[in-house]
Amino acid sequence: MEQIPPPISPEPTSTPIIDPQIDPIPPHKNRTLMYIAIGVGLIVVIGTVIGGTWAYTQGKKDIQAMVQSQSQQLDDLQKSYNDIRKVLDKVPSTPSLDSADLLDSSINSGLPSEYDDVLGVEEDLGIDQNRKLSEEYKAATKLLDNLKKNNRKIEGLSQSNPVISIFIPQNADLISDTDSFANTSSALLMYLQKVNSFEINSTMVGYQIGMAIQEAVVRSADDASVANLEKKIKEIDSLYEEYKSIDISSIPEDLQTNHSAELASFSEDVEIFNQILLAFQNKNAALLEKTLQSIIIQGQGASNESEVKFKSFWQDNVIINGVTDLSDRWSEYGASVGISE
């Protein structure tokens, strides 16, 4: 009898083993986390944008203020230079560095007493103009210092605010050129200030020598008057050393050449003054007349020539006139960062 095979039982389906410690995340919770992540991302982005916008806005305001300050300093510097030119225009035929023309005027005019108006004497000698020049030199030097300080602030702002370096036009070349201009101009003004101070001292010494010579003439070259003259002439020697010690390494070559020429001329004048003293000591009238005429003529010519040259210097010097070009460049940069005219 044929056996009937037993029915095939279906294979049991595998039942997943669920770890009771793991709580599966329902689909709706996945979406919630996604939304949270997107929200956090948007907050970060929006915060970055807002922070960046604020940094840009604030940085732009700061750099605009600094650029305007630079432009103002340059405008004031130009005015200071113009004031110097005005002072020079008012200066009469002033004494040369050797003060020989003051020697002439003091010999041929009455000697002032100790009660005379000192300021009046200074005005007659042109020293009041020298003092005005000194004040203008100081004012201009201060403005140049401010230019360099503003440069450092602008550099510091770019370093502390990265947004500025990305979105605001940079001006490294302009800053470098401004530093160079300020350094060169400061060195020039320092030199001119020292020469100006020297001129004040030499003018007064020249005037005092003239009075000492007149006194020696009136007193027939007695011992006291000759000793006083010798004392004053020794001050000329000190002035020569003072002029020789002025540092000229940082000024343009043409000024260095001119300074050396003036120094050589001054050396010749020192020798003439020593000859004048020798003439009084030996009571040599012929030598005295010769040396006095020599230094008076030489001094008057040098004085007029020096005055013309100095006025031309302030009109034509490349360093001084460089303020105009630099001012224009800062104005252009100001326009690039949103400063309206």
Automatic annotation (TrEMBL):
Residues 60-87, 130-157 form a coiled coil. Keywords: Coiled coil, Membrane, Transmembrane, Transmembrane helix. The chain crosses the membrane at residues 33-56. This is Uncharacterized protein. It comes from Candidatus Roizmanbacteria bacterium CG_4_10_14_0_2_um_filter_39_13.
